[in-house]
Amino acid sequence: MTQSSQADSGSTSTRTQEGTTETTSIPEARTGASPARLADDTSQGKTTIAASVVQKIAGIATREVSGVYAMGGGVSRAFGALRERIPGGGSGTSNVSGVQVEVGEKQAAVDLDIVVEYGASIVELARAVRRNVIQGVERMCGLEVTEVNIAVNDIQLPSEEEADTGGTGSSRVE
User: Fold this and answer.
1) CA 158 to CA 37: how far, in whole Å?
2) pLDDT digits over 105-154, tens only?
3) Do residues 100 and 51 both lie within one domain?
4) Quick one: which of 7, 53, 75, 102 is 20 to 30 A from 17 by CA?
5) Which of 149, 164, 161 is nearest to 114 (CA)?
6) pTM, entire model
7) Distance of alpha carbon 116 from its chain centroid, rounded?
8) What is the CA radius of gyration of the chain?
9) Tens-digit pLDDT profile for residues 48-58
10) How far is CA 147 from CA 54, 111, 159, 172, in A?
């Protein structure tokens, strides 16, 4: 005998088999969230905030912190560089590589993929990014940020930066 019930935070399944009862809770997936969530509901109307808005705010707040070189993994950064060269391709929701969000009615969770500049303290940088993202999202959206997970995928070395800009730095020979 199997019984199932739905709840706001996911689904619950109860299975009874030969005198034993097993109850499991299945959380909602991050990608299964509705694109727009309730932020304010008053007698004068309601305000909803799209997940892409929270995503952009988190991305901007991350880039504001000194020591963050880029966002996203290697492939998403390569596609982002290509997209910026196409007229009109650098704008829109696809411009937020390295940021994933889960937005509920009153809370949000953020996952970040970043590249750090060489020499920056990764622990201190992660604290500063986390603090800036939480302040930005809570101030602008009124949503409680439950967690900000940060994955440091790469480190940018000074010699790599010169190669990225075409070697416009000082030359060793004339």
Assistant:
1) 42
2) 899 999 999 999 999 999 999 999 999 999 999 999 999 999 999 999 99
3) yes
4) 7
5) 149
6) 0.64
7) 16
8) 21
9) 899 999 999 99
10) 13, 8, 34, 47
C-alpha span between 96 and 62 (Å, rounded): 11
* Residues 148 and 129 sit within 8 Å (Cβ to Cβ): yes
Q: Tally the domains of the chain.
A: 2
- 149: which 2 tokens? 């997970």
> For residue 170, is it within any domain?
no
N- to C-terminal Cα separation, the chain: 83
Least Cα distance to 1 among 14, 25, 24 occurs for: 14
Please check whether residue 72 is in contact with residue 97, taking contact to mean a CB–CB distance below 8 angstroms: yes
Burial class of residue 110 (count of CB atoms within 10 Å of its CB; 0-12, 13-18, 19+)? buried
Asked if 15 and 78 sit in the same domain, the reply is no
The beta strand positions in 104-169, using DSSP E, are 107-117, 144-156
Q: Give the angle subtended at the CA of 97 by the CAs of 96 and 98, to the nearest 5°.
A: 115
Q: Which amino acid is at 78?
A: A
Rounded CA-CA distance 15/12 in Å is: 10
Among 24, 103, 25, 101, which residue's Cα sits nearest to residue 58?
Answer: 101
SS (H, E, C) 33-58: CCCEEEEEEECCEEEEEEHHHHHHHH
Q: In what helix (H) or strand (E) does residue 61 lie, and over which residues does it extend?
A: helix 51-63
